[in-house]
Amino acid sequence: MEFQATPHNNDKLSSILKNIEELNHLKDIDTILDKILFEARQLSNADAGSIFIVDEQKLRFGYVHNDTLFKEDESNEAIYVDFTLPVNDKSIVGYVASTCDTLVIDDAYQIPSDRPYTFNDMYDHKSGYTTKSILTIPLMTFHDKLVGVMQLINAKEDGRIIPFSKESQALVPLFANNAGVAIDRGIMNREMILRMVRMAELRDPTETGAHVLRVGAYSAEIYHQWAIKHGIDIQEMKRKKDLIRLAAMLHDVGKVGIPDKILKKPDKLSDQEFNEMKWHTVYGGRLFINQTSNLDKMSMDITLNHHERWAGGGYPGRINDIMMPEITMGDPKKVDEIPLSARIVALADVFDALTSSRSYKSPWSDDDAMEKIESESGKHFDPEIVTIFFKIFPVIKAIRNKYREQA
Ligand code: C2E
Ligand code: SIN
Ligand code: SIN
Ligand code: FE
Ligand code: FE
Q: How many distinct structural domains can be found in the chain?
Protein backbone atom coordinates (compact mmCIF):
# COMPACT_ATOMS: atom_id res chain seq x y z
CA MET A 1 0.00 0.00 0.00
CA GLU A 2 1.31 3.43 -0.86
CA PHE A 3 1.87 5.93 1.84
CA GLN A 4 2.79 9.55 1.25
CA ALA A 5 3.81 12.00 3.90
CA THR A 6 1.71 15.09 3.38
CA PRO A 7 1.68 17.91 5.95
CA HIS A 8 -1.62 16.57 7.19
CA ASN A 9 -0.12 13.11 7.56
CA ASN A 10 2.86 14.56 9.40
CA ASP A 11 0.52 15.81 12.09
CA LYS A 12 -0.95 12.37 12.38
CA LEU A 13 2.50 10.76 12.41
CA SER A 14 3.71 12.96 15.24
CA SER A 15 0.52 12.17 17.10
CA ILE A 16 1.24 8.45 16.61
CA LEU A 17 4.75 8.92 17.98
CA LYS A 18 3.40 10.78 20.96
CA ASN A 19 0.92 8.00 21.61
CA ILE A 20 3.61 5.35 21.49
CA GLU A 21 5.53 7.35 24.06
CA GLU A 22 2.39 7.43 26.23
CA LEU A 23 1.78 3.73 25.78
CA ASN A 24 5.16 3.09 27.28
CA HIS A 25 3.99 4.56 30.56
CA LEU A 26 1.08 2.15 30.82
CA LYS A 27 1.53 -1.14 32.55
CA ASP A 28 -1.47 -3.40 32.48
CA ILE A 29 -2.77 -5.22 29.40
CA ASP A 30 -6.34 -3.92 29.80
CA THR A 31 -5.20 -0.28 29.95
CA ILE A 32 -2.97 -0.81 26.94
CA LEU A 33 -5.80 -2.36 24.91
CA ASP A 34 -8.13 0.49 25.87
CA LYS A 35 -5.55 3.07 24.78
CA ILE A 36 -4.78 1.31 21.49
CA LEU A 37 -8.46 1.13 20.55
CA PHE A 38 -8.97 4.75 21.47
CA GLU A 39 -6.10 5.96 19.30
CA ALA A 40 -6.82 3.65 16.36
CA ARG A 41 -10.45 4.77 16.36
CA GLN A 42 -9.38 8.42 16.43
CA LEU A 43 -7.08 7.85 13.46
CA SER A 44 -9.79 6.18 11.39
CA ASN A 45 -12.89 7.88 12.82
CA ALA A 46 -14.35 4.47 13.69
CA ASP A 47 -17.46 4.22 15.84
CA ALA A 48 -16.47 0.92 17.44
CA GLY A 49 -13.69 -1.62 17.67
CA SER A 50 -12.40 -4.66 19.44
CA ILE A 51 -9.12 -6.47 19.99
CA PHE A 52 -8.49 -10.20 20.14
CA ILE A 53 -5.34 -11.58 21.74
CA VAL A 54 -3.49 -14.70 20.62
CA ASP A 55 -3.77 -17.22 23.43
CA GLU A 56 -2.17 -20.58 22.66
CA GLN A 57 -3.73 -21.66 19.34
CA LYS A 58 -6.80 -19.44 19.72
CA LEU A 59 -7.88 -15.81 19.63
CA ARG A 60 -9.25 -14.63 22.95
CA PHE A 61 -11.56 -11.63 23.06
CA GLY A 62 -9.63 -8.90 24.87
CA TYR A 63 -11.38 -5.52 24.74
CA VAL A 64 -14.18 -3.59 23.05
CA HIS A 65 -15.21 0.02 22.46
CA ASN A 66 -18.53 1.12 20.99
CA ASP A 67 -19.51 4.80 21.07
CA THR A 68 -23.05 4.01 20.05
CA LEU A 69 -23.68 1.33 22.69
CA PHE A 70 -21.68 2.53 25.71
CA LYS A 71 -19.91 5.64 26.93
CA GLU A 72 -16.38 5.95 28.17
CA ASP A 73 -17.42 7.13 31.64
CA GLU A 74 -19.65 4.13 32.25
CA SER A 75 -18.35 0.93 33.74
CA ASN A 76 -19.18 -1.73 31.29
CA GLU A 77 -19.74 -5.45 31.38
CA ALA A 78 -18.92 -5.93 27.70
CA ILE A 79 -15.15 -5.72 28.22
CA TYR A 80 -15.28 -8.73 30.57
CA VAL A 81 -17.03 -11.05 28.13
CA ASP A 82 -15.01 -14.23 27.74
CA PHE A 83 -14.90 -16.13 24.45
CA THR A 84 -12.39 -17.45 21.93
CA LEU A 85 -12.27 -17.91 18.16
CA PRO A 86 -10.18 -20.47 16.30
CA VAL A 87 -7.39 -19.21 14.02
CA ASN A 88 -8.90 -20.31 10.71
CA ASP A 89 -10.37 -18.60 7.65
CA LYS A 90 -14.03 -19.03 8.65
CA SER A 91 -14.32 -15.82 10.68
CA ILE A 92 -12.99 -12.41 9.66
CA VAL A 93 -10.74 -12.14 12.70
CA GLY A 94 -9.53 -15.73 12.29
CA TYR A 95 -8.81 -15.13 8.60
CA VAL A 96 -6.69 -12.05 9.35
CA ALA A 97 -4.82 -13.99 12.06
CA SER A 98 -4.01 -16.78 9.60
CA THR A 99 -3.00 -14.52 6.68
CA CYS A 100 -1.44 -11.72 8.78
CA ASP A 101 -2.75 -9.23 6.21
CA THR A 102 -5.02 -6.24 6.68
CA LEU A 103 -8.57 -6.89 5.45
CA VAL A 104 -10.90 -4.12 4.29
CA ILE A 105 -14.65 -4.73 4.09
CA ASP A 106 -17.01 -1.97 2.96
CA ASP A 107 -20.23 -3.73 3.88
CA ALA A 108 -20.36 -6.65 6.31
CA TYR A 109 -23.69 -7.77 4.87
CA GLN A 110 -22.45 -7.80 1.25
CA ILE A 111 -19.37 -10.01 1.46
CA PRO A 112 -18.91 -11.82 -1.88
CA SER A 113 -19.71 -15.51 -1.60
CA ASP A 114 -16.32 -16.57 -2.99
CA ARG A 115 -14.59 -15.44 0.22
CA PRO A 116 -13.69 -18.15 2.76
CA TYR A 117 -14.83 -16.05 5.75
CA THR A 118 -18.32 -14.90 6.67
CA PHE A 119 -19.52 -12.09 8.91
CA ASN A 120 -20.99 -13.35 12.17
CA ASP A 121 -24.08 -11.20 12.74
CA MET A 122 -24.90 -12.68 16.16
CA TYR A 123 -23.52 -9.68 18.06
CA ASP A 124 -25.51 -7.25 15.88
CA HIS A 125 -28.66 -9.29 16.54
CA LYS A 126 -28.11 -9.34 20.29
CA SER A 127 -27.18 -5.68 20.66
CA GLY A 128 -29.28 -4.01 17.96
CA TYR A 129 -26.10 -2.53 16.48
CA THR A 130 -25.55 -2.50 12.71
CA THR A 131 -22.05 -3.28 11.51
CA LYS A 132 -21.20 -2.00 8.03
CA SER A 133 -17.58 -1.09 7.23
CA ILE A 134 -14.84 -3.14 8.89
CA LEU A 135 -11.06 -2.67 8.95
CA THR A 136 -9.31 -5.71 10.43
CA ILE A 137 -5.60 -5.53 11.17
CA PRO A 138 -3.07 -8.07 12.46
CA LEU A 139 -1.08 -6.85 15.48
CA MET A 140 2.53 -7.99 15.24
CA THR A 141 5.72 -7.38 17.20
CA PHE A 142 8.86 -6.19 15.42
CA HIS A 143 9.91 -9.85 15.30
CA ASP A 144 6.84 -10.65 13.21
CA LYS A 145 5.18 -12.53 16.00
CA LEU A 146 1.38 -12.23 15.85
CA VAL A 147 0.05 -11.04 19.22
CA GLY A 148 -3.51 -10.20 18.27
CA VAL A 149 -6.03 -8.82 15.80
CA MET A 150 -7.74 -5.44 15.93
CA GLN A 151 -11.07 -4.85 14.28
CA LEU A 152 -12.34 -1.31 13.67
CA ILE A 153 -16.01 -0.92 12.81
CA ASN A 154 -18.09 1.73 11.03
CA ALA A 155 -15.91 4.60 9.85
CA LYS A 156 -17.93 7.80 10.15
CA GLU A 157 -18.13 11.07 8.24
CA ASP A 158 -20.68 13.74 9.12
CA GLY A 159 -22.65 11.19 11.10
CA ARG A 160 -22.87 8.76 8.16
CA ILE A 161 -21.15 5.40 7.96
CA ILE A 162 -18.66 5.21 5.11
CA PRO A 163 -15.99 2.72 3.96
CA PHE A 164 -12.59 3.05 5.68
CA SER A 165 -10.55 5.58 3.68
CA LYS A 166 -7.27 4.80 1.91
CA GLU A 167 -5.59 7.02 4.48
CA SER A 168 -6.93 4.95 7.39
CA GLN A 169 -5.91 1.77 5.62
CA ALA A 170 -2.35 3.11 5.49
CA LEU A 171 -2.08 4.85 8.87
CA VAL A 172 -3.71 2.37 11.22
CA PRO A 173 -1.37 -0.52 10.34
CA LEU A 174 1.61 1.78 11.07
CA PHE A 175 0.24 2.38 14.53
CA ALA A 176 -0.65 -1.30 14.89
CA ASN A 177 2.95 -2.52 14.81
CA ASN A 178 3.83 -0.46 17.83
CA ALA A 179 0.59 -1.49 19.46
CA GLY A 180 1.66 -5.11 19.06
CA VAL A 181 4.84 -4.44 20.98
CA ALA A 182 2.92 -2.66 23.76
CA ILE A 183 0.46 -5.56 24.05
CA ASP A 184 3.30 -8.03 24.31
CA ARG A 185 4.74 -6.00 27.17
CA GLY A 186 1.37 -5.67 28.90
CA ILE A 187 0.86 -9.42 28.86
CA MET A 188 4.37 -9.89 30.24
CA ASN A 189 3.69 -7.43 33.07
CA ARG A 190 0.56 -9.28 34.10
CA GLU A 191 2.35 -12.63 33.83
CA MET A 192 5.11 -11.31 36.05
CA ILE A 193 2.64 -10.28 38.71
CA LEU A 194 0.82 -13.59 38.49
CA ARG A 195 4.17 -15.32 38.89
CA MET A 196 4.82 -13.38 42.11
CA VAL A 197 1.36 -14.33 43.31
CA ARG A 198 1.93 -17.97 42.39
CA MET A 199 5.02 -18.01 44.56
CA ALA A 200 2.76 -17.14 47.46
CA GLU A 201 0.05 -19.45 46.16
CA LEU A 202 2.37 -22.45 46.29
CA ARG A 203 1.98 -22.00 49.99
CA ASP A 204 -1.50 -20.50 50.32
CA PRO A 205 -4.06 -22.45 48.29
CA THR A 206 -6.67 -19.68 48.75
CA GLU A 207 -4.62 -16.99 46.97
CA THR A 208 -5.25 -18.30 43.46
CA GLY A 209 -4.52 -16.53 40.22
CA ALA A 210 -8.26 -16.26 39.61
CA HIS A 211 -8.84 -14.65 43.06
CA VAL A 212 -6.24 -11.96 42.43
CA LEU A 213 -7.45 -11.27 38.87
CA ARG A 214 -10.96 -10.77 40.29
CA VAL A 215 -9.82 -8.53 43.15
CA GLY A 216 -7.71 -6.52 40.67
CA ALA A 217 -10.60 -6.04 38.23
CA TYR A 218 -13.22 -5.30 40.94
CA SER A 219 -10.88 -2.68 42.39
CA ALA A 220 -10.18 -1.11 38.97
CA GLU A 221 -13.90 -0.77 38.16
CA ILE A 222 -14.79 0.58 41.60
CA TYR A 223 -12.00 3.14 41.25
CA HIS A 224 -13.24 4.06 37.76
CA GLN A 225 -16.66 5.03 39.15
CA TRP A 226 -15.15 6.80 42.16
CA ALA A 227 -12.99 8.90 39.81
CA ILE A 228 -15.93 9.81 37.53
CA LYS A 229 -17.98 10.79 40.57
CA HIS A 230 -15.14 12.99 41.84
CA GLY A 231 -14.58 14.68 38.48
CA ILE A 232 -11.08 13.26 38.02
CA ASP A 233 -9.69 13.97 34.55
CA ILE A 234 -10.15 10.92 32.31
CA GLN A 235 -6.44 10.48 31.48
CA GLU A 236 -5.55 10.67 35.16
CA MET A 237 -8.35 8.21 35.91
CA LYS A 238 -6.96 5.73 33.36
CA ARG A 239 -3.43 5.98 34.74
CA LYS A 240 -4.62 5.30 38.30
CA LYS A 241 -7.00 2.56 37.16
CA ASP A 242 -4.02 0.86 35.52
CA LEU A 243 -2.01 1.03 38.74
CA ILE A 244 -4.76 -0.10 41.07
CA ARG A 245 -5.53 -3.18 38.96
CA LEU A 246 -1.96 -4.41 39.25
CA ALA A 247 -1.32 -3.27 42.82
CA ALA A 248 -4.59 -4.82 44.04
CA MET A 249 -3.49 -8.15 42.58
CA LEU A 250 -0.59 -8.01 45.01
CA HIS A 251 -2.66 -7.28 48.15
CA ASP A 252 -1.76 -10.53 49.93
CA VAL A 253 1.80 -11.24 48.67
CA GLY A 254 2.91 -10.68 52.27
CA LYS A 255 1.39 -14.08 53.07
CA VAL A 256 4.68 -15.58 51.84
CA GLY A 257 6.01 -14.62 55.27
CA ILE A 258 3.37 -16.58 57.21
CA PRO A 259 4.22 -20.12 58.44
CA ASP A 260 2.53 -23.04 56.68
CA LYS A 261 0.85 -24.38 59.80
CA ILE A 262 -1.20 -21.15 59.94
CA LEU A 263 -1.58 -20.44 56.25
CA LYS A 264 -2.77 -23.94 55.40
CA LYS A 265 -4.83 -24.61 58.52
CA PRO A 266 -8.08 -26.22 57.36
CA ASP A 267 -9.85 -24.80 60.41
CA LYS A 268 -10.61 -21.64 62.32
CA LEU A 269 -7.47 -19.84 63.50
CA SER A 270 -6.82 -19.43 67.23
CA ASP A 271 -6.44 -15.85 68.49
CA GLN A 272 -2.69 -16.27 68.61
CA GLU A 273 -2.56 -17.68 65.09
CA PHE A 274 -4.73 -14.86 63.78
CA ASN A 275 -2.40 -12.34 65.44
CA GLU A 276 0.46 -13.87 63.49
CA MET A 277 -1.61 -13.82 60.32
CA LYS A 278 -2.09 -10.06 60.68
CA TRP A 279 1.61 -9.62 59.92
CA HIS A 280 1.01 -10.42 56.24
CA THR A 281 0.13 -6.72 55.84
CA VAL A 282 3.48 -5.58 57.23
CA TYR A 283 5.45 -8.24 55.33
CA GLY A 284 3.69 -7.14 52.14
CA GLY A 285 4.48 -3.48 52.76
CA ARG A 286 8.14 -4.31 53.30
CA LEU A 287 8.40 -5.72 49.77
CA PHE A 288 7.74 -2.23 48.39
CA ILE A 289 9.89 -0.16 50.72
CA ASN A 290 12.22 0.91 47.88
CA GLN A 291 9.67 2.90 45.97
CA THR A 292 10.99 3.39 42.46
CA SER A 293 7.61 3.78 40.74
CA ASN A 294 4.00 4.79 41.36
CA LEU A 295 3.17 1.11 41.17
CA ASP A 296 5.49 0.42 44.11
CA LYS A 297 3.90 3.23 46.08
CA MET A 298 0.36 2.04 45.48
CA SER A 299 1.36 -1.57 46.18
CA MET A 300 2.72 -0.42 49.54
CA ASP A 301 -0.51 1.48 50.31
CA ILE A 302 -2.61 -1.58 49.51
CA THR A 303 -0.56 -4.41 51.05
CA LEU A 304 -0.13 -2.47 54.28
CA ASN A 305 -3.66 -1.03 54.61
CA HIS A 306 -6.14 -3.46 53.05
CA HIS A 307 -7.30 -4.76 56.46
CA GLU A 308 -7.87 -1.33 58.03
CA ARG A 309 -11.50 -0.52 58.77
CA TRP A 310 -13.25 2.75 57.87
CA ALA A 311 -14.49 3.36 61.43
CA GLY A 312 -11.27 2.06 63.00
CA GLY A 313 -10.51 -1.30 64.59
CA GLY A 314 -8.59 -2.80 61.65
CA TYR A 315 -4.93 -3.74 61.43
CA PRO A 316 -1.95 -3.11 61.39
CA GLY A 317 -2.73 0.53 62.31
CA ARG A 318 -0.27 3.42 62.46
CA ILE A 319 3.31 2.25 62.29
CA ASN A 320 6.32 4.56 62.24
CA ASP A 321 8.87 2.30 60.63
CA ILE A 322 7.70 -0.94 59.07
CA MET A 323 11.28 -2.22 58.83
CA MET A 324 11.65 -2.36 62.63
CA PRO A 325 11.80 -6.07 63.52
CA GLU A 326 9.92 -5.76 66.81
CA ILE A 327 7.13 -3.34 65.96
CA THR A 328 3.77 -3.75 67.61
CA MET A 329 0.54 -3.15 65.78
CA GLY A 330 -0.26 0.58 65.92
CA ASP A 331 -3.29 2.69 66.80
CA PRO A 332 -5.95 1.97 64.22
CA LYS A 333 -6.28 4.18 61.19
CA LYS A 334 -9.63 5.65 60.23
CA VAL A 335 -11.54 7.15 57.36
CA ASP A 336 -9.34 9.00 54.83
CA GLU A 337 -6.20 8.28 56.79
CA ILE A 338 -6.59 4.93 55.00
CA PRO A 339 -5.50 5.43 51.37
CA LEU A 340 -8.35 5.34 48.87
CA SER A 341 -6.79 2.38 47.01
CA ALA A 342 -6.75 0.32 50.23
CA ARG A 343 -10.36 1.25 51.07
CA ILE A 344 -11.37 -0.03 47.65
CA VAL A 345 -9.36 -3.25 47.88
CA ALA A 346 -10.73 -3.90 51.38
CA LEU A 347 -14.22 -4.25 49.97
CA ALA A 348 -13.16 -6.11 46.80
CA ASP A 349 -11.14 -8.63 48.82
CA VAL A 350 -13.82 -9.33 51.42
CA PHE A 351 -16.55 -9.72 48.78
CA ASP A 352 -14.38 -12.18 46.89
CA ALA A 353 -13.33 -14.07 50.06
CA LEU A 354 -16.96 -14.37 51.22
CA THR A 355 -18.26 -15.67 47.88
CA SER A 356 -15.33 -18.10 47.40
CA SER A 357 -14.73 -21.34 49.24
CA ARG A 358 -11.92 -21.42 51.76
CA SER A 359 -10.44 -24.42 53.57
CA TYR A 360 -12.29 -23.24 56.67
CA LYS A 361 -15.64 -22.21 55.13
CA SER A 362 -18.11 -22.72 52.25
CA PRO A 363 -18.88 -19.90 49.80
CA TRP A 364 -21.61 -17.46 50.79
CA SER A 365 -24.47 -16.67 48.41
CA ASP A 366 -24.40 -13.28 46.67
CA ASP A 367 -27.39 -12.17 48.72
CA ASP A 368 -25.70 -13.04 52.02
CA ALA A 369 -22.44 -11.40 50.94
CA MET A 370 -24.25 -8.24 49.82
CA GLU A 371 -26.24 -8.08 53.02
CA LYS A 372 -22.98 -8.35 54.99
CA ILE A 373 -21.36 -5.58 52.95
CA GLU A 374 -24.41 -3.34 53.34
CA SER A 375 -24.41 -3.87 57.12
CA GLU A 376 -20.69 -2.98 57.26
CA SER A 377 -21.14 0.28 55.36
CA GLY A 378 -19.65 3.04 57.50
CA LYS A 379 -18.13 0.41 59.83
CA HIS A 380 -15.70 -1.84 57.98
CA PHE A 381 -16.16 -0.09 54.63
CA ASP A 382 -16.19 3.44 53.24
CA PRO A 383 -19.92 4.03 52.59
CA GLU A 384 -19.21 5.73 49.28
CA ILE A 385 -17.33 2.64 48.06
CA VAL A 386 -20.25 0.44 49.15
CA THR A 387 -22.68 2.56 47.11
CA ILE A 388 -20.45 2.37 44.03
CA PHE A 389 -20.06 -1.39 44.47
CA PHE A 390 -23.82 -1.92 44.41
CA LYS A 391 -24.20 0.39 41.43
CA ILE A 392 -21.76 -1.61 39.31
CA PHE A 393 -22.82 -5.05 40.52
CA PRO A 394 -23.58 -6.31 36.97
CA VAL A 395 -19.96 -5.51 36.04
CA ILE A 396 -18.75 -7.29 39.20
CA LYS A 397 -20.66 -10.39 38.12
CA ALA A 398 -19.24 -10.21 34.58
CA ILE A 399 -15.72 -10.06 36.05
CA ARG A 400 -16.38 -13.06 38.26
CA ASN A 401 -17.65 -14.96 35.25
CA LYS A 402 -14.54 -14.11 33.23
CA TYR A 403 -12.05 -15.10 35.94
CA ARG A 404 -13.52 -18.35 37.19
CA GLU A 405 -11.64 -20.80 39.40
CA GLN A 406 -10.01 -23.46 37.20
CA ALA A 407 -11.26 -26.90 38.25
P1 C2E B 1 -8.85 -14.06 53.03
O2 C2E B 1 -9.37 -15.46 53.06
O3 C2E B 1 -8.41 -13.51 51.70
O4 C2E B 1 -9.99 -13.14 53.63
C5 C2E B 1 -9.97 -11.75 53.49
C6 C2E B 1 -10.96 -11.10 54.41
O7 C2E B 1 -12.30 -11.47 54.04
C8 C2E B 1 -10.84 -11.51 55.87
O9 C2E B 1 -9.85 -10.76 56.55
C10 C2E B 1 -12.23 -11.15 56.39
O11 C2E B 1 -12.38 -9.77 56.59
C12 C2E B 1 -13.11 -11.55 55.22
N13 C2E B 1 -13.60 -12.94 55.38
C14 C2E B 1 -13.11 -14.05 54.81
N15 C2E B 1 -13.84 -15.13 55.18
C16 C2E B 1 -14.80 -14.67 56.03
C17 C2E B 1 -15.88 -15.31 56.76
O18 C2E B 1 -16.09 -16.54 56.69
N19 C2E B 1 -16.67 -14.49 57.52
C20 C2E B 1 -16.48 -13.16 57.61
N21 C2E B 1 -17.30 -12.41 58.36
N22 C2E B 1 -15.46 -12.52 56.92
C23 C2E B 1 -14.65 -13.28 56.16
P24 C2E B 1 -9.23 -11.30 57.93
O25 C2E B 1 -10.31 -11.83 58.82
O26 C2E B 1 -8.37 -10.21 58.47
O27 C2E B 1 -8.33 -12.52 57.49
C28 C2E B 1 -7.14 -12.35 56.77
C29 C2E B 1 -6.67 -13.66 56.23
O30 C2E B 1 -6.45 -14.56 57.34
C31 C2E B 1 -7.69 -14.39 55.36
O32 C2E B 1 -7.61 -13.93 54.04
C33 C2E B 1 -7.26 -15.84 55.52
O34 C2E B 1 -6.13 -16.14 54.70
C35 C2E B 1 -6.79 -15.88 56.96
N36 C2E B 1 -7.85 -16.35 57.87
C37 C2E B 1 -8.76 -15.58 58.52
N38 C2E B 1 -9.56 -16.34 59.30
C39 C2E B 1 -9.15 -17.62 59.13
C40 C2E B 1 -9.56 -18.91 59.69
O41 C2E B 1 -10.50 -19.01 60.50
N42 C2E B 1 -8.87 -20.00 59.26
C43 C2E B 1 -7.83 -19.95 58.38
N44 C2E B 1 -7.22 -21.07 58.02
N45 C2E B 1 -7.41 -18.77 57.84
C46 C2E B 1 -8.06 -17.62 58.21
C1 SIN C 1 -7.14 -10.00 28.96
O2 SIN C 1 -7.47 -8.80 28.84
O3 SIN C 1 -7.35 -10.62 30.01
C4 SIN C 1 -6.52 -10.74 27.81
C5 SIN C 1 -5.01 -10.60 27.78
C6 SIN C 1 -4.30 -11.51 28.73
O7 SIN C 1 -3.95 -12.66 28.37
O8 SIN C 1 -4.06 -11.09 29.88
C1 SIN D 1 -9.34 10.10 49.39
O2 SIN D 1 -8.67 9.56 50.28
O3 SIN D 1 -10.56 10.30 49.51
C4 SIN D 1 -8.66 10.45 48.07
C5 SIN D 1 -7.19 10.64 48.22
C6 SIN D 1 -6.43 9.38 47.87
O7 SIN D 1 -6.26 8.54 48.77
O8 SIN D 1 -6.01 9.21 46.69
FE1 FE E 1 -5.08 -9.85 53.38
FE1 FE F 1 -7.17 -11.96 49.54
A: 2
